[in-house]
Amino acid sequence: MALNKEVFRTRALSAIVFVIIMLGGLLWNHWSFLLLFSIIHVGCWWEYFNLQEKIQQTTYSFLSRVGMILVGYSVVLLQCGDAFQINGYHLSGSSIGVTIIAGQVLFLYGLFTDRNNKSTGTIVSAFLGVFYISLSIGFMLSLRQQNMNSLFGDFGWLYPMLLIASIWINDTMAYIVGSMIGKTPLSKISPKKTWEGTIGGALLAVVVVTLVAVWWLKADWKITAAIAATAAVTGTLGDLFESYLKRRAGVKDSGNMMPGHGGFLDRFDSLLIATPFVWLVVKIFE
């Protein structure tokens, strides 16, 4: 698979803009972090509905979409600890239950007042999105609240940054290595991925992230290497899962949020699967 310079240039330029926005949300403070991932949450859900409409051969009304997104966002807010409070009110307060019920009512009302026939698969697919998207972003918020009160200030961004950097480096290096020496297809789901690129990307991600984190951030090398390795492996599985959804839906990209990268799900597919596993790794090392 030859390296397509034009494609690589487009991906690189759009990635620069993307990185600037991501870094602003990740590093400014925990509120910018919440805002960033709230936007990601809505974007991923909307594209997930678009894919499921094609897969299930049905439609989700606007009310159904909003209702399920509310249910999912309630799951996200449940992970907000003491840091996320406004005038003494915690975002994970008792009103979450009301939001979940309201979201379910909206979803079902929109579903059954639509003229299109609805199948069990339509409902199941929507609720599975809570685990696929919302629970994962909730775990990301949980990771952000680690190391918030260290001796040197708010280092809550550390674990999310290590996770995201590992996925970015793995994705980029797998593309480059696969383009140069890749010969063995990884899976029929994503024919362009190769074993050579996948293994090379994962190894480089672990080495680069661990060396930079230990040298620059004085992070513990064991947990850093574990996060990087976990993110690289499970992130690839996340990419394959989204490719599977797109193949069933008969589309190339889930959306057009980023030129050369596609939509929200195209950009965050690896993160959605990797985050719960990295969260588990962090809990094991605590």
UniProtKB/TrEMBL annotation:
Its recorded reaction(s) are: a 1,2-diacyl-sn-glycero-3-phosphate + CTP + H(+) = a CDP-1,2-diacyl-sn-glycerol + diphosphate
The UniProt transmembrane annotation reads: 12-28, 62-79, 91-111, 123-143, 155-177, 198-217
Q: Name one GO cellular component term.
A: plasma membrane
Entry annotated with the keyword Transcription: no
Top-level taxon of origin:
Bacteria
Q: What is its main location?
A: membrane
Membrane topology per the record?
Answer: Multi-pass membrane protein
Q: Does the keyword ATP-binding apply?
A: no
Its pathway, per UniProt, is: Lipid metabolism; Phospholipid metabolism; CDP-diacylglycerol biosynthesis; CDP-diacylglycerol from sn-glycerol 3-phosphate: step 3/3
Q: Which GO terms describe its molecular function?
A: phosphatidate cytidylyltransferase activity
Q: What is its EC number?
A: 2.7.7.41
UniProt-annotated location(s):
Cell membrane
The biological processes this protein is annotated with in GO are: CDP-diacylglycerol biosynthetic process
Catalytic class of the enzyme: transferase
Q: Give the UniProt keywords, A-Z.
A: Cell membrane, Lipid biosynthesis, Lipid metabolism, Membrane, Nucleotidyltransferase, Phospholipid biosynthesis, Phospholipid metabolism, Transferase, Transmembrane, Transmembrane helix
* Family that this chain belongs to: Belongs to the CDS family.
What is this protein identified as? Phosphatidate cytidylyltransferase
Which species is the source of this protein? Phnomibacter ginsenosidimutans
Name the lineage: Bacteria, Pseudomonadati, Bacteroidota, Chitinophagia, Chitinophagales
